[in-house]
User: Fold Cytosine deaminase from Apiospora phragmitis.
Amino acid sequence: MKLQNVILATESSDARWDLEVSDSVLQTKEATNADRGAPSSILLPPLCHPHIHLDKPYILTCNHAPSDRHPDYTDLAPQSGSFGEALASTSKAKERYTAEDLYLRGSQLLATSYQQGVTSMRAFVELDHVTGTLPLQAAIRLKQDFSHLVQVQICAFAQDPVFSTGHGEENRSTIEKALRDFDCSIDVLGSTPYVEQSEQDSVKNIDWAIRTAIEHGAHLDFHLDYNLDSSAGFLVEPVIRLLGEHQWTRRVDKSKTIVIGHCTHLTTLPSRKMLDMASSIRQQKLPLHFVGLPTSDLFMMGRPTEKQTTPHARPEAPFRQCIYTVRDWRSPAAGLLGGGLYQAGTVDDAELLFSCVSSRAREAIGLSNVGYEDLLKEGSEWRPLLLIENIKRMSVRPKPGYPDFEIPARQRVSIKDVVWDPPEVSLRSVVG
Ligand SMILES: [Zn+2]
Assistant:
């Protein structure tokens, strides 16, 4: 494989390079021979989805005639748009899952993600008394079928209560059995402590998840503190305490990480409490990461209830510890959204935002991370990278009777250009 006239993010954006790869090794890296006027491409680390639900995509937009194999979900379109309604509709949707439906929607998600430059992801699949292991079995097939394109980590996920309600015990035993029966295929245990009916059960859920993840040597992933209610309990605290009590760092392989997703409650914390939490995580050397999902989190934050006193709290503090997920970044305006949302307007911020959907996201979910700089040394083993192409001119419709109307296209030559103006999907591809 030859890549000509590329810009490398770690080198000057004036420099252009020709790379030659054979036998999966970068054989040569030389100053380009290409015409200086030709549009260059920029080569970046590939994207990583640290949080995506493999059984959920396209439920409301799958748009095909209902059949035994492919259910219709259109009646589940939101009416009130509330979080409670979303949870109730999700439960109804799960009752309709079929193997063919899960595989089709999952494969559409994986193919689309790959085309957008994603080469790794953590895929959540719900396991409970309704779904049984159906979503897990679809995920295992998808993981195998896409293994040459995307590295998929499967997260066995308890979206529903595992202690409260009449189904708690059954939900818990469904997950525990799946962890035993499909041990080799499951990488992560995920749970949602806030869905339990009391704070006491939420803490039991956290305790169970930590013990079970340790027992199976799995990564751990919580959906947690997804509210802006400053009077609600802050469940990150028992997570940190119980990880210590169960001696996570001593009993689990160093490569295994703990992720806390959403956690919008962080924005209600005073700085002092944030600093105390950060120092407690550092003191225990916990491999703990926060993953923000800006579009869904903003949706929640924009819906104050009577109890919420800070409905539009400023999400400033979490930014530097957070991963910003690629699902939210991929739409053209979302890079700018990140800049505005996190008041992140400098070039360094742009680079940090990009790392949140690439190298930092990989690190958060415990995937090996070869430094981009090391990867681009002659003799290094080649790993897939993201190529952003530039076009020379943009063509638009001319006035009637006028010749072609062409405008010189702006060139993306650095990470800030890619983050502040994400390219269309057709201008990105994974190479290698
Ligand atoms: Zn989620």
In short: The first strand starts at residue 2 and ends at 8. Confidence is low (pLDDT under 50) at residues 314-322, 326-333. Residues 51, 53, 124, 223, 261 surround zinc ion (CB under 6 Å). The chain has two domains: 2-44+372-431, 47-364.
